[in-house]
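Minutes, project check-in
Item: structure for the 139-residue chain
Input as provided by the requester:
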Amino acid sequence: RARPGGAMTEYLHVMAPFAALLLSGIAAALAVEHAGDLSDCLRGLGPGADRLQDLVVSLFVNYVVIVSVNGFATVILWLSFFHCDALECALKHMLTSSKTLGYMLAVVWLTFLMQILRIGYVLTLNGVLSSLAYICDLG
């Protein structure tokens, strides 16, 4: 008897970490691309914008952590799913053990929570900078 969804659902758990890695990589690339513009804007506001500058630095650190964790999780899940004789070693068996996969699941959930909490700060920063740019254009 065929399962609902067929082969697509069978490979979903293998493609999900790759999709997360791809999306977090795009977000990090966009953040790095526009970081200079944001820093210039904050530098133009003077010493009162130090806290916002710290927030920008913390966002960069968050992106590095998230992309690294997503990359590591993708490699581990792909090693556990796909069989490759050239990669048979004790390290691969340790990395693909159920204990390590359980730890990685917890770490991935923590980074997801970090992203959910961080989005409020990003939207706040976007709103504050938009308001400041509007005020600066008035004078």
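Outcome recorded: The chain has a mean pLDDT of 77.
No further action items on this chain.
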